[in-house]
Amino acid sequence: MDDCVFCRIVRGELPASKVYEDEHTLAFLNIMAGSPGHTLVIAKPHRENIYTLEDELAEAVMRTTTRVAKAVRQAAGCEGVTLFQANEVAGGQTVFHFHLHVLPRTPGDSLPGVWPATAPTRTEMDEMAERLRAAL
Questions:
Q1: Are 43 and 6 in contact (CB under 8 A)?
Q2: Which domains are delineated in the chain?
Q3: CB-based contact 17:29 (threshold 8 Å)
Q4: What sections of the chain are H helices per DSSP?
């Protein structure tokens, strides 16, 4: 995509503080960082979201994310990382090129933790599990 900001970074048209690159993926620091070391891992070919990733590319992105998470933990001196990945507007996606956020975390930081939990019944969970198995 000609106007996609991440495609433009891959092509070298826009600057990025690169952390890692291979044939399928690119990792670089987020210009809108939640904390120092906040890194984005992207698929190099344009894929809008997780639904459009083929298995080989999904595997490559996860391999890179694992390597980057280990590096972020060491280099940022954090005590943990949060991985975040959003799809479609309703899911919170703002850049429509598949990417994962690797966020360094420390106890008491100002980043959001987890979402409010609900406790569905076993019947509700079993019914949803059945629907998910059918969709797979």
A1: no
A2: 5-135 (3.30.428.10)
A3: yes
A4: 5-10, 55-76, 122-135
Convert 37-74 into a string of H (helix), E (strand) and C (coil). Answer: CCEEEEECCCCCCHHHCCHHHHHHHHHHHHHHHHHHHH
Over residues 86-121, the pLDDT tens digits come to 999 999 999 999 999 999 999 988 887 777 778 889
Provide the whole-model pTM. Answer: 0.91
Antiparallel, parallel or unpaired: β 80-84 and 39-43: unpaired
Residues designated as active site: 99
Angle (nearest 5°) at CA 110 between 27 and 87: 45
In which region does residue 65 sit, left (phi positive, over 0), alpha (psi from -120 to 50) or beta (all else)?
alpha
Angstrom CA distances, 44 to 1, 88, 102, stand at 11, 19, 17
